[in-house]
Amino acid sequence: MEIQTDFLRFPGTRSGFEGAAARLRALLDARRLEGAPRYNVELAFEEIVTNIIRHGSPTENVEVAIAFDEREIVLTFEDNGVPFDPSVRPAPTLPESLEEAVVGGLGLVLVSKIVGRMTYARTPQRRNQLTLTIPTAD
């Protein structure tokens, strides 16, 4: 089983995100990834990168490695923003009704539901490293 890895490197800005998201979609098209696995990869990428930019305030490029094999896709995000381990963040209280619901704040909850595994490390280079494993079976 051969693992193929692609890399995205982009400024931690909104326009950097938009360009990287377009390159990610092109990679997924080239690999003919469809259905739930594709949706989950795109959702995880958008939620994590948006949080890095909005809350982490990175001053250097964001780097994302995307490793593909037959069973799973592994996304590894690295940035030099504010340290933050989403895997230990307590889940927010869910609203009891739609009237009580507010927009935002549930992205990490969604990501935690679609990934098989989530790990975080603060590297010796003082970078956040978040790894998400997404199953490829629908």
Walkthrough of the structure:
It is built from 3 helices and 5 strands, in the order E-H-H-E-E-H-E-E. The protein is an alpha+beta fold. The protein has one domain: Heat Shock Protein 90. The longest helix has 22 residues, at 35-56. The model has no long low-confidence stretch (mean pLDDT 88).
Count of helical segments? Answer: 3
Low-confidence stretches: none
N-to-C SSE series?
Answer: EHHEEHEE
Strand order of the largest sheet: 1-2-3-5-4
Fraction of residues in helix:
25-40%
Distance between the termini: 20 Å
Beta strand %:
25-35%
CATH superfamily: Histidine kinase-like ATPase, C-terminal domain
User: Could you say what the CATH topology is called?
Assistant: Heat Shock Protein 90
Average residue-wise pLDDT:
88
What is the structural class? alpha+beta
Q: Main β-sheet, in a few words?
A: 5 strands, antiparallel
Count of domains:
1
Count all strands and give the number. Answer: 5
Q: For the CA atoms, what is the radius of gyration?
A: 15 Å
CATH architecture: 2-Layer Sandwich
CATH class: Alpha Beta
What's the shape?
globular
Short recap of the structure:
The chain is of the alpha+beta class. It is built from 3 helices and 5 strands; from the N terminus they run βααββαββ.
